[in-house]
Amino acid sequence: MLKWLLVIGVVAAVYYLFIKKSAPLPKSGKPSSKDTTDEDTLVPCETCGTYVSVHEAYLKDGHYYCSVECMKKA
Question: Mean of the pLDDT values across residues 50-72?
């Protein structure tokens, strides 16, 4: 019985020292200003004024649009 506990302890120690340690830990829960991406930025549609994220917006001639319909109207 003691041998099995020793083997399990050694396997657990190897796991935590080599495998678990390789995963990076987050530094803090709050994102810093340089972690924010352009996807978080909202821009107004040039035609209707609806705010849409940069990631979902359509871009034409330097102007952002919320949909293809608004882009065609401009």
Answer: 92
